[in-house]
Amino acid sequence: HAFGPEVSQAHVYSKAVTPIVEAVIRGYNGAVIAYGQTGAGKTHTMVGTRTRDGQGMAPRAVADIFASLEGKASWAVAVSALEIYNERVRDLLSPSGASVEIHEVCVDDQRQTFRCPDATMWPARSPEEALDALADVVSRRETACTEMN
């Protein structure tokens, strides 16, 4: 999906992220990827602001996932965050920002997925713990300009 600057966070979430969150709730892995040049608004889209209308994709997804778990006897949530920067995949939850490898995996003849077995998996027992992981991620990402700018 690609959206213009006039589109609300709620619209982006409902069109692009809700189907992924629904799959995660059913037990599948999910990934939301923001791509663009430095200063294009990737962090704003993914994290947003503290207001309900301004919340980004990650806080909305966290809220929906944990709301779906209320009343369930057994569940586990783990958060991981990867950054692809200058052809290098970095684990943003690793204190060292270690490089990790992504492996493509065939599910069947028509579907493929990916695995990143060395990525840090941050257990989250509450929305607050998941959002704490997000705060760590934002502070560790690369923000330098690229030649495209």
Stretches with pLDDT under 50, minimum 5 residues: none
Strand order of the largest sheet: 1-6
Strand content: 5-15%
In total, the number of strands is: 6
The residue-averaged pLDDT reads 87
Radius of gyration: 16 Å
- The helicity comes to 25-40%
How many helices in DSSP terms? Answer: 4
The biggest sheet amounts to: 2 strands, antiparallel
Write down the secondary-structure element order: HHHEEEEEEH
Write the layout of secondary structure elements.
Layout: H1 9-25, H2 42-46, H3 57-69, E1 78-79, E2 82-85, E3 88-91, E4 103-106, E5 112-115, E6 122-123, H4 127-140
Antiparallel strand pairs: 1-6, 2-3, 4-5
Helix pairs in contact: 1-3, 3-4
Question: Describe it for me?
Answer:
- Residues 1-149 form the Kinesin motor domain.
- GO terms for molecular function: ATP binding; microtubule binding; microtubule motor activity.
- ATP binds at residues 36-43.
- This is Kinesin motor domain-containing protein.
- Belongs to the TRAFAC class myosin-kinesin ATPase superfamily. Kinesin family.
- The chain is of the alpha+beta class and 149 residues long.
- It has two domains: 1-73, no CATH class; 76-143, no CATH class.
- The chain contains four helices and six strands, in the order αααββββββα.
- The chain has helices at 9-25, 42-46, 57-69, 127-140; strands at 78-79, 82-85, 88-91, 103-106, 112-115, 122-123.
- The chain has a two-stranded antiparallel ribbon.
- Helix 1 runs parallel beside helix 3 (57-69) and helix 3 (57-69) runs antiparallel to helix 4 (127-140).
- The longest helix has 17 residues, at 9-25.
- It starts with 8 loop residues before the first helix and ends in a 9-residue tail after the last helix.
